[in-house]
Amino acid sequence: MLREIDEKSAPGDGGAARQSLARERAGLAPPSDPAGSSASERAMRLLASLGDRWESLLADTVGAERAHAMRVSGNGWNHSIIAGCPGG
Questions:
Q1: Are residues 83 and 14 in contact, defined by beta-carbon separation less than 8 angstroms?
Q2: Secondary structure (3-state) at 65
Q3: How many CA atoms lie within 13 A of 57 on its CB side?
Q4: Quick check: 37 and 18 in contact, CB under 8 A?
Q5: d(Cα 66, Cα 43) in Å, to the nearest integer?
Q6: How many whole angstroms separate alpha carbon 40 and alpha carbon 16?
Q7: Do the beta carbons of residue 70 and residue 3 sit within 8 Å?
Q8: What is the C-alpha separation between 67 and 58, in angstroms, rounded?
Q9: Which of 19, 28, 30, 66 could pair with 85 as two cysteines, CB 3.0-4.6 Å apart?
Q10: By the 8 A CB rule, do 37 and 17 touch?
């Protein structure tokens, strides 16, 4: 599905979305309104939130401390698909 979103998106949408999310995560920009964002950006936001959401669900079963330790030991449940910015 992600490939289809990418293929049907305007050229540069994916790179712009990655750059926008990276700036937000670095504290360089406020969060943008998802309602006005591209399909690429909404998909990347969903992917970027999965680790936090999974850790929260896991915490209900094993406790917050253990869930966080499991996440850290798994390298943050790699989210490299959204890493990087165009030209950098």
A1: no
A2: helix
A3: 6
A4: no
A5: 28
A6: 9
A7: no
A8: 6
A9: 19
A10: yes
One-letter identity of residue 14: G
The domain locations on the chain are 2-29+37-82
pTM of full prediction above 0.70: no
Q: What is the pLDDT of residues 52-83, one digit of tens each?
A: 899 999 999 999 999 999 888 866 665 555 55
What secondary structure does DSSP assign to 8-39, as a single string?
A: HSPTTHHHHHHHHHHHHHTTSSPPP-GGGS-H
**Residue 41: C-alpha distances to residues 17, 58, 67, 81, 88 (Å):** 5, 26, 28, 12, 18
Q: What share of the chain in percent tops pLDDT 90?
A: 38
